[in-house]
Amino acid sequence: MTAARPRVLQLFAPGINCDRELRYAFERAGAEVVELHVSELAAAPERILDFDLFAVPGGFSYGDDLGAGRVLALQLERRLGSALRELHARGGVLFGVCNGFQALLKAGFLPGVDGLPPLSLTWNASHRFECRWSRLRAEAPLGEPWPEGTVVAAVSAHAEGRIVLPDDERDAATLMEAGVVAFRYCDEEGRPRTDFPHCPSGSAGGIAGLVAPCGRILGLMPHPERNLSRLHLPDRGDGAWGGEGVAASFCAGLLSRIRTPASR
Questions:
Q1: Active-site entry in 98, 186, 199, 251
Q2: Catalytic site includes residue 98
Q3: Is 199 a catalytic residue?
Q4: What is the pLDDT of residue 29?
Q5: Which among 88, 158, 198, 223 is annotated as catalytic?
Q6: Which CATH superfamily hosts domain 7-255?
Q7: What distances in angstroms separate CA 235 from CA 206, 222, 240, 247, 257, one per listed residue?
Q8: pTM
Q9: Low-confidence residues of the chain, pLDDT below 70?
Q10: Is 127 in the active site?
Q11: β-strand 181-186 against 151-158: which pairing, if any?
Q12: Catalytic residue among 88, 139, 225, 251
C-alpha cells in the first residue's frame, strides 16, 4: 500500500506574495498542498487539524501597516491559536518564512527564554529594505536533516528582520545555550557573521531563524524556497553558493519533522 502524502496547509492572506514558490517547493518534496485564506480558516479553524504541517509564506501581510506581520499575528493568536496548538500537540509542524516568521514570533508560537524579554523583530540596522543572497549556518538544535554547520543559500528580502536584545552579545549567547537558535548568517566558510552584508539585518548574534525546543516550530527570515534551481543561484551553480537549489530539500526536511500519531 502506498503511504499517504503528508498534507500541508498553506495560509493565504492579503499581501502574502511568496506562496507560489513555497507551494512548488513542498510539492516537489512530495507533499499535498492546500491553500486557504485566513478568513476561511477563521470561520472554521478545526480544518487545520486535517493537515500535518501549517505553513505561513512570506510577503507583506496587510501591508505591514502596523508593523511587519503584526495584524496576521493577531489573527493567528486570537482566531487560530487553539487549533494551531492542538495540531502541534498532535505532532504537527508549524513553519513561517520571512513575514510568516514575523507573524509566528509575534503571535507567541516561537519560544521565549527565561531572563530575556519576549523576542521580536524590528527594522534592519541599515534602516532600509535589504534584498540579497545570504548564507545561513544551521545550528546544533536543528539536527537532521541539517547537521550543525550545514550552509544553506537563501534570499534575504525584508526591512524588519533584526532580532534586538538588551545586550546583543551576552543575550545571543543565552539564546544559543537555550537551544532555540536555528540558523545564523555566515560567510562562505560557514563562519557566523554579524557584519553587513553577510548579516543583512544586523540581527543580534547574526541570528536568522529560531526553533522551538521540540524542533517542530521553525521560523527564519531568508527565503530558502526562492532557491529552486541552480539557475537561480548568483553564480548559476558554479559552487560558491552551492551546486543545486535547496527549496525542495529544505521542505523535505520540514516534512521529516512531522510526528503525527498513527491514529490520526
A1: 98
A2: yes
A3: no
A4: 97
A5: 223
A6: Class I glutamine amidotransferase (GATase) domain (3.40.50.880)
A7: 24, 18, 7, 17, 31
A8: 0.95
A9: 1-3, 261-264
A10: no
A11: unpaired
A12: 225
